[in-house]
Amino acid sequence: DGKLYFTCYGDSYNGGNGVLAAVDTLTFQAWNTYEVGSYPDGLTVANGCIYVANSDYGMGVKPSISKVNPQTLKVEEIKDDLITNPMQMVTIGSDVYSLDYGTYDEMCNQVGAGVRKITASGNVTKVVDGTAMGTDGKKIYTAYAPWGAAEITYLIYDPATGATTSWSPEGIFSPGVI
User: Fold this and answer.
1) SS3 call for 129
2) Which residues of the chain have pLDDT under 70?
């Protein structure tokens, strides 16, 4: 609708919340801001709403997904035990997927990283392991290279069937982003 949206850490540094900012693409003037959760990172658009991954900077105190409706100006927080450190967001069909970095144990090993499916009603499920995620708009491709792991796995999740298959790219070392 002629708006560019981006996330800003805002008052997150002081224990507060971040901001989703909307800028008009014709005038480049701020159109509106929305208070979202702590340390907002990735975002995506689905079902007329903007979904924001509030990572809480990995602290695990108040991670969430904000669902912002720019028509009603309403902001809803989605919280779930599976939302621990969300970073990246994508949309496939009417569903939203968030790459969650999980948590870290006392030895700094990354635990529980993967892709979470968030439905329009706010239901959250983990669908596939991953520390990096990309999509072609039909499937989700992940690399699972958690900190402290001895092995890297590559997976393809198909939302249409719910099936997960593996793939093996050659010559890839320490994948970071897909």
Assistant:
1) strand
2) none
